[in-house]
Structure formats: structure tokens, C-alpha cells
Amino acid sequence: MSMQVISYPHSGKFFTKLQAKALAVKWLWGIWMVVMLVSFLVQLLTIDVLPHIQQDEAQITDYGRLALHPQSDWAVTWRVAEGKPLLLWSYVGPLIAEASFHLFGPSGLGPRIASLIGGLLAATMALGWILARKVPVYAAFGLSLAFLLDPLFLLSQRMARVDSWVVALCLAACWILHSELKKDRNTAFRWQIMVAGGLAAMAALVWPSAVFLYPLILLELIQLPKSENAGPGNWRSILINGVVFASGALIGIGVLILPVLQSIVIIYNDMTTMFSQNIDVTKTIQERFSGVFQYQSWVKMIKAFVKTFSPILPILALFGAIAYRKHGAVVVVCLTAIAIIFSTLIYEFRVLYLMPYLLVLSSGLFIRLADKPSSLLFQRASKGALILLIFWSVGTSLFLRTILGTEGKTVRDREKIYEVANTGIGPGNYNVYLGFTYEFYFVGRSLGWNLYTPYIQYSFDNQGNWIREVNHVPDSKVIELLNHMDYAIFPRGSIDAKLAYQLEEAGLRYKRALHLGDDQPVRQRFTTENRDRDVLLWFLQGKESYGSYLLYSRDTPFAKTAAFKLN
């Protein structure tokens, strides 16, 4: 390699080209830390109200509580027919949410903050991984910044989902494996492969969706022998590396499964219910395979990116795959991940796991620019697309969402939920049935309530969308559960004849309405005249307000009033 010398007259020092690049990378990481801090602080301005409190954040946090207390006799994932909570084997992610709930207090902001931190970590892993793939510094920084502030990725964090932690662990494994491509075999190298396997296993125990990123990790593992130039011996190297990787994964699973070992049989049985909700079990193997070739599946995936304000990165990835043919293996594993998603269920927070694939495919444009001369038009188009991607992500996530969140501070203020819960029921060891009113989850726990919400088995429409046709079933079991409730809270307008009968049979009477500043029922999702506008607004900000609720109670509650406590 020729050594180009760069002179800096004022310092009197000389730098080789490699030294200058190393200095640029150091500055890059410094700037990256500042960007992450600014992004985090801006997000905190509206994290409490945008979006409104979600079902996912309540259920995930409760899974974490159940991991610590598997014998608990209440849950917001209550299996009514069996009279027990649903236990989840992927407990590490929920445990992060539960720990952050205790750390940041009864407002319930902790799980969202923890998810934001996971997003910062995931984007940092993405930057290191892309740099390890020899992507030009400016492009690696720009793509990682766009990923950090991608509207869909950020929405999952603002809903306190644990996707960001899964992505962070999987990309960390990819970074470890790829950064070792040109190193010779040694003991430390073996340990690093084992660590990568442990991280991949941990990702699965954070959330089951880690499976969608395993093809990418597998690709990095298979490419490891390239560093040895072993020729025909590559298959032997692949086998050895695979055994080392698998050993790390098994050790990781073994260590992490120990805390829930006493509940492993119950968890295994409960996972059947979980998978049946997240996978359309009515499909045959042939139908799952053929789904990859059905244009409806691709249209649904495209719509998932469009309605969540994340359409530019997939387009950039497509052009990158065309322009840089050396990413053929990445295209294959990306299609594999898409096939897995299509064979299960296509929706926004599953499509999210394609983003790491799209990042590396998009980087192909800029690797090509660095590898060989390109036309001026190609250079300008590639760099212009990157700038557009950055401005879109920053504008949507930091500016537009902040403006919408600031405007909604009054109507979505969490303090209002606490006020009506405290005045309507108050602190005490009460059994409270939440009729899918997850907004009261964090407040209810802070007031010492035992909370119950049915775990609903979703069905599917002709397009594979989740639909919830029946909420409070089976009838006799719901009445039996309500017989043990002190209170029940339902959204205004949700009491039909059957539910009214169940409440009557259980001895629960209408007590009062709980108003959170808006006397009108909240607009239901996607049912207004302008459906497309409502879909886009929902993914951008959630419901406009909490609306009003109906409180039912029995004449003499079973529980006695207790002092204020935080479970």
C-alpha cells in the first residue's frame, strides 16, 4: 500500500493516509455521541404523551413482573378459560421494562425510556458494523443516523416495545463476527465467536422476533472462513466456527433459562397460545411457501413501510442491491427473512426487522462509489438520496412528532389518568377488571390494584390482518372472574348487551363516568370517513385523547383500603 503523507503546517506533524482515516473515525464517534444525546433529550420532551399509553407497553411490562412472580394471581394477560396468567419464555426484554418501571416511578415512563436507550445502543451497533464492512465514513454515519431516527423504529421505542434491544444484540453479534474477517485463528478469536453466539441467544430471550435477524447473523458466520484463504478447507472452517458459535448460544440459553426453570413446563404450554396469536395457524405449509410469490404479501409489506413514514430506506436498499452486485448474499438472506415474515404474519412491527438488511444493502451504493469511478450523475443521485433519507428521518422524528406531541400535552397528560383513578377508586388492594383500558395499568399498579385483562385470541380477515371479534369469552368464565372483582373500567360506548348481562350477573353496578377532559368518546381506529388520513395519523401520534370511561363497582368491595404503594 502506498503511503500518502498529509502535512498540517500549524502542528508540524505528518500523518499517513491510514492515520488520517483513524483520526476521522475518532471524530466520527465523538460527533455520534453528541447526536445521540441531542436525539435522546428531544425525544424526552414528548415521550410521555406521544403516543398515548399502549397495550404493548402494559403487557410487556407485566410479562416482566410475571417473570419475577410466576405464581401471581393477576395479570393483564389473563387467560380467562384457564384462570391463569400467560407466561412468556422471552422474559429478558419484559424484565428490562419491569425494572425501568420501578426505577422511573409510577408514571410508567420507565419502559419507554429504556426502549429509547435500546434504540441508541442498536444504532451504535449498526454504525460499528457498517464501518467494519468498509463503508465510507460519511455514508456509515448518515445511514446509522437515519436508522436511529427512522419513524417506524422510533415508534416501536415510544410504544415501549423491546424490539430495539433485540436489534442491538443481533447487530452486536454481526459486528463481532464481521470485524474478525481478516484476523487469523487464535484463542481470542474463538471466544469472540462464542460471545456472538451468546448475544444471538440472548436476543431470542429478549423477544421471539429475534428469529427474523438470524439469517443475517448466519451470513456473517458463514463468511468468517474467507479470512483464512483455506480453499477447499472452508467447509471444515465453517463447521468449526458453527460449533463454537452454537456452544456460545447454548451456554447463553442455559444461563438465562435458569431463573425461570421452575416454570418451564407452564411457559412451554403457554407459548403455544402465544404462537397461535402471532402466526396464522390456519395456513398450510404450502400456503406459507406460496405466500412469498403472492403480490398481496408484497403490497402489505410496502404499505407497512409507507403508513409508518419509512418508505425511503427500502427504495435506497433496492437501488443499492442493483448497483452493488457483491451484496448478492445479503440479498439472499434478506429474501429469507422476508419469506419468514410472509409465512407468519405481515404487520408493522415485524417488518421493522428488515431494517438492518436494508441498511447494508443501501450501503452498497457508497461502497461502489469508493471502489470504482462512477458517473457524476450516479454520485450526485446516491449522495442526494442519502441526504433526503437523513432529512426525512430527522424531520419526521425530531420535528414533526415533537410538534404534535407538544400540542397534545394537555389532552394526553398522564396525570389526568392518575387523578380519575385516585378519585374514582383510590389506593387499595382492589381487584380491578380493565376492559382493555390499558391506560390504567401503570396508575393501577402505583395505587396497589390487582389488574385483570383477558388475553384475547385474535382471528384473521381475508387479508391476514388481526381482528378481534369477541372480547369477553367464554361467558361463564368471564362471569366467574367478574365475581371476584371489586371494580371494572371500560371505554365509554363499549358496553353491549352481553357484557351488561355479565356485569349484572357478577353483581357489578354502574357507578360513574370517568372524564379525562373530553366528554366525547374517542374516535375509533380507522373508522372515520377519511380512513387513509386516520391510519397515517395513528402511526404518527396515536389516539388524539384518552376520552371517557365507565366505572362499575359492587356495593361493598371485597378489599380493604390500603396505604399507597408501588408494586
UniProtKB/TrEMBL annotation:
Main location: membrane
Protein's GO biological process: lipopolysaccharide biosynthetic process
Transmembrane segments: 27-47, 113-132, 137-156, 162-181, 193-218, 238-268, 304-323, 329-347, 352-370, 385-404
Source species: Pontibacter chinhatensis
GO molecular function: pentosyltransferase activity
Alphabetized InterPro entries for the sequence: LipidA_mod_glycosyltrf_83 (IPR050297)
Location in the cell: Cell membrane
Keywords from the named record: Cell membrane, Glycosyltransferase, Membrane, Transferase, Transmembrane, Transmembrane helix
A Gene Ontology cellular-component term: plasma membrane
Superkingdom: Bacteria
PANTHER family according to UniProt: MANNOSYLTRANSFERASE YKCB-RELATED, MEMBRANE PROTEIN
Membrane topology label: Multi-pass membrane protein
Phylogenetic lineage: Bacteria, Pseudomonadati, Bacteroidota, Cytophagia, Cytophagales
Record-given protein name: 4-amino-4-deoxy-L-arabinose transferase
